[in-house]
């Protein structure tokens, strides 16, 4: 419950941050130019995300959170939004992680938007294969 309350207040705060991001994108120059900040590392080459980038940017917290509640409390497995899946495709080629360095995929955006997630206290931020290979 404490986690849930904190998540809600964070989500509210960050909805404001996201609104600011969107607004600056709309007032920026038109054409092919991308949202100026932050710099986001590319996903593994030759893959496609589980949804289009705009949907992912907007909806990924809900996708993951819903999944978390169902998995931990209901024991449901195998739905679309897997955290392991995100990490397999989005781990940095430099650090092998999504959250070890400021430029890593999840971290780059979250520090820009001042989002703090506790997920990697329990979950590995690196693909399982790279951990397994060490043994
Ligand atoms: C207190 C420990 C803990 C924290 C913190 C935590 N999880 Fe989990 N999570 C678990 C456990 C336990 C499972 C079920 C076992 C498993 O599948 O690894 C799980 C499973 C999941 C799954 C389904 C399995 C998978 O890998 O896709 C997702 C998605 C998920 N968590 C997302 C998150 C997200 C997002 C956060 C941060 C907002 C988070 N979790 C934070 C313990 C935690
Ligand atoms: C099979 C590989 C794969 C998986 C799994 C995957 N992604 Fe992606 N993701 C990509 C690719 C590739 C892109 C670049 C856009 C595209 O081609 O779809 C991307 C784009 C994104 C973007 C937009 C980034 C930007 O530049 O604005 C976000 C956000 C995102 N993914 C989050 C996630 C999250 C969160 C998960 C897990 C729930 C996830 N992705 C799972 C491959 C993947
Ligand atoms: C394109 C930028 C971007 C990328 C890349 C990104 N996020 Fe986020 N994320 C955000 C923003 C902005 C928020 C807060 C706004 C919101 O809640 O809708 C957020 C919120 C979250 C939340 C909810 C936090 C809370 O407690 O409210 C989770 C969980 C999360 N992201 C997981 C991830 C994971 C895991 C990755 C990497 C696989 C990732 N995100 C990559 C921008 C991003």
> Please, what is the average pLDDT?
73
What small molecules does the structure contain? Answer: heme C
Shape: globular
Provide a count of the helices.
5
The first-to-last residue Cα distance is: 37 Å
Most strands sheet? none
What are the segments in which pLDDT stays under 50 over at least 5 consecutive residues?
1-32, 131-135
Q: Strand tally, please?
A: 0
Give the SSE string: HHHHH
Strand content: under 5%
Structural class: mainly alpha
* Helix fraction by DSSP (H/I, runs of at least 4): 40-55%
How much is the radius of gyration in Å? 16 Å
Please specify the SSE layout and strand pairing:
Layout: H1 2-27, H2 53-74, H3 83-90, H4 105-113, H5 128-132
The protein binds heme C (3 copies).
One heme C is lined by residues 7, 10-11, 14-15, 17-18, 40, 57, 60-61, 64, 86, 90, 98, 105-106, 109-110, 113, 115, 117, 119.
Q: What does it look like?
A:
The protein has 135 residues and is an all-alpha fold. The protein has a domain at 43-135. It is 52% helix and 0% strand. It contains five helices and no strands. The protein is globular. The chain starts with a helix and ends with a helix. Mean pLDDT is 73; it is low at 1-32 and 131-135. Bound molecules: heme C (3 copies). One heme C (HEC) is lined by residues 64, 67-68, 71-72, 82-84, 117-119, 121-123.
Can you give me a brief rundown of this structure?
With 135 residues, this protein is mainly α.
């Amino acid at each position: 419950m404490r986690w849930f309350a904190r998540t809600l207040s964070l989500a509210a705060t960050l909805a404001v941050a996201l609104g600011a991001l969107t607004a600056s994108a709309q007032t920026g120059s038109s054409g092919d130019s991308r949202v100026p900040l932050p710099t986001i590392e590319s996903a593994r080459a030759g893959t496609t995300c589980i949804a289009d980038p705009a949907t992912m940017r907007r909806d990924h917290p809900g996708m993951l959170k819903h999944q978390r509640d169902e998995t931990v409390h209901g024991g449901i497995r195998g739905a679309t939004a897997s955290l392991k899946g995100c990490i397999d495709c989005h781990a940095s080629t430099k650090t092998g992680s999504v959250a070890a360095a400021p430029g890593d995929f999840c971290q780059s955006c979250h520090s820009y938007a001042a989002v703090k997630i506790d997920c990697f206290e329990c979950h590995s931020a690196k693909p399982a294969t790279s951990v397994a290979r060490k043994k």
